[in-house]
Write a structure and sequence with these properties.
Layout lengths: L4 E5 L8 H7 L3 E5 L4 H6 L5 E4 L6 H6 L5 E3 L8 H11 L4 E5 L7 H16 L3 E5 L4 E5 L3 E5 L6 E6 L3 E9 L3 E6 L9 E11 L4 E6 L7
Parallel strand pairs: 1-2, 1-5, 2-3, 3-4, 5-6
Antiparallel strand pairs: 6-7, 7-13, 8-12, 9-12, 9-13, 10-11, 10-12
Length: about 220
């Protein structure tokens, strides 16, 4: 199946790294409101800019006069980020790279990005959330997530439910067919021995990676 990748520019914090450039390279781009400020640092021009524009000042809007803008009322039932995701899917996206999805001033938005991503993975989409320095990968039951990681880099597996059959490979603290209670910190702060893989038979989880953090090496 052909993979169609979309980068979605969201309003959280962003550090532009070589790994981020490689992740987003060649993808189509949609901006959500104030996430457009990341377009300049990434050197991209989105094909669409959506939102209520309460986070976009006149200066930012003036710098992108040719980008199609689709405005929504501030009193709406979904976030600007979710609108951007829906637009990408309508345009054929199978892979969604959510840039600026982690951190920032609105922790409620960041948490909602996690929850939305979990639902998208269950619907068959490939999703990564990134701040440039951190990357979050939701993964579904009965599938394997393989991830290139530098040896010594930190990562954690966050269970959003009780997890059954959790397996972590090529890490300092591997697990095999493990049952992780909901809320347990057992899988926080693991250390990659190089490329890692994770899988589970039941539950909902996100792998949060810090590829540039070698403090656990």
């Amino acid at each position: 199946m052909t993979t169609t990748s979309f980068t979605l520019l969201l309003g959280g914090s962003l550090a532009v790294t070589d790994r981020l450039r490689a992740l987003t390279g060649g993808s189509r781009v949609i901006a959500a409101d104030g996430g457009m400020r990341h377009a300049e640092s990434l050197g991209v021009t989105p094909e669409l800019w959506v939102g209520d524009f309460d986070s976009s000042d006149t200066g930012l809007i003036a710098r992108f006069p040719t980008v199609e803008r689709r405005s929504y009322p501030a009193a709406k039932a979904v976030t600007d980020g979710e609108i951007a995701v829906a637009e990408a899917i309508a345009r054929g996206a199978t892979r969604l790279i959510c840039v600026g999805a982690l951190g920032g001033e609105r922790s409620d938005h960041a948490l909602q990005h996690y929850l939305n991503a979990l639902g998208l993975v269950e619907d068959g989409y490939e999703v990564v959330l990134t701040s440039g320095e951190e990357e979050a990968y939701p993964f579904a039951a009965d599938s394997e997530l393989a991830l290139e990681m530098p040896k010594g880099a930190l990562f954690s597996v966050l269970g959003f439910t009780t997890l059954e059959g959790l397996t972590i490979r090529n890490a300092r603290y591997p697990l095999q067919d493990f049952s992780l209670p909901f809320g347990s910190s057992r899988t926080i702060s693991n250390i990659a021995e190089g490329p890692i893989s994770v899988s589970l038979s039941r539950g909902r989880a996100i792998l949060l990676a810090r590829p540039y953090d070698l403090s656990g090496a």
